[in-house]
Amino acid sequence: MVKRCSYGSCNTDSRYPERLGNVQFHPFPKPARNLEKCMKWIGLCGRGHQLSLDKLSNHSTAKHIYVCSKHFVDGRPTPAHPDPLPALTDAHGNVKPARRCSKFGPKLRPQPVPPRKTLRVDRMPDNTETISVGCDLQDKITTGEIATESLMEDTTTEESTPLTETECTDDQPQMEEKREQMEEKQEELERLKTLLAQKENENDLLRAKIRTCQAPYPLTAEVINNSSVPDYFRYCTGFTYDEFNKLCRFFRLPDNDTVPQTHIPLTYEKLDRHIQHMPLRQQFLLVLMRLRQNFDLKELAFKFQIDMHSVSTLFSSWIDFMYDRLGVSVWPHRDIITENMPGNYKSEFPTTFAILDCTEIKIEKPSSLLVQSQTYSNKSTDTFKSLIVCDPRGSIMFVSTLYSGSISDQELFRRCEIKDLLKGLLQCGYLKKGDGLMVDKGFLIENDVKELGLNLNIPPFAKSNLQTPVSDVEMTKKIAKHRVHVERAIAKVKQFKIVSGRIPNSMLGNINQIWFVVCMLSNFQQHIIQA
């Protein structure tokens, strides 16, 4: 592999062994590993116009860029002297970059100008004021020896015009002054060139930071909240801006855009650059928008300026995290339920603390005929079924996993873990023997509930085919009036469009977690019934 030294005008090259000797090559720092050191070496080597971050980031060109050992204090980078010596410097310590090559080929250097011959002055007699000055430059300088036209003009003028001693004495300070001015201008030009190279290096550094570290995420909670569209934040997420901030506090996220994120409460399936630099509040906003409006991956990737794979990874990881965080027991003590009961419910059913109902969500038609027969329900479509339990105010206290749509309500009650939960509540005193549950007709679970020591409030005409007494009719109306709370709670859950439409087969892998999360998130919205 060809190795070339990139220091100043050094021509050490591995293709020419006669130049090498005991010289060793040390690789140039790469921007991806140590950007600051790379920029420093570019400045020290004096080739800011040739060495760029793009060239050093490209493996095909960077593999030929080295600095030889001749330019290090110890012959190689050491802890005491890790960087090469500065390239050729002027009197002011400014780095002189290597000569820039012309695109039309090498420049022809001008011929060296021979020094002017010392003027010979012959003094005339004392009574003569003017003395003639003779120059014999005409005999010594030929046409080929003089490189520039300006020098020819100066020589011709000197030969044709005789100088007096006074004029020679007066011209000498002027020439010295002009020479000093030219030197000052040259020094100023070198200083400006060095300053320009430094500014170009700074611009390259800023561009690299923008490309690698600063990904734009224009859609934030504050942008949506300040929208001129009425209730646009609630439309996108299902919550008000204040409710969103309360949710952030619950999930241990910053509750405003000025609070720094010091704790990452979740782990990701695969961490990439987009996810790593995206603020957690915006990640949470993305998840809520997907749950509420069921935006597809392409639309969310466009809104948040990330790729589709990052959207999928974010959503799956956040659903698992929210499922674990919301999976704590939310069944309150019977005294708390009694304290928050609506007045008319408390007067009619003071010891009934839970309302039960089943609901179904639609799914795509499975390809397996066996699965089709299991998921086909009486709604003439393929569904999943779940049991939901809420308190008298309509807050969800229990959500079962999803079962195939053909299962009956009674069988679902027996298979899900609700019976074990009720036993545990009775043992710890959250419920007492004789407390009641409320269900609709068709929920034939009276025997199962009595085995637990609880009562079941069910419309009376569902028990018998005999003529229904007036008292039973009144009881049926009362139960129907209060049982509607669980139906309204289910309707609030299905306002999350990710579960209100037909669930695609690609989502069935984590549909249980999604279903549980949207059910629990509905509790953070405004209560159906105010106490």
Automatic annotation (TrEMBL):
Keywords of the record: DNA-binding, Metal-binding, Zinc, Zinc-finger
PROSITE patterns xrefs: ZF_THAP
Cofactors, names only: a divalent metal cation
Highest rank taxon of the organism: Eukaryota
Residues annotated as domain THAP-type: 1-89
Region annotation Disordered: where it falls in the sequence: 89-121, 151-174
Pfam families: DDE_Tnp_4 (PF13359), HTH_Tnp_4 (PF13613), THAP (PF05485)
InterPro entries with a match to the protein in the record: HARBI1_dom, THAP_Znf, Transposase_HTH_dom
GO molecular function: DNA binding; zinc ion binding
The protein's name: THAP-type domain-containing protein
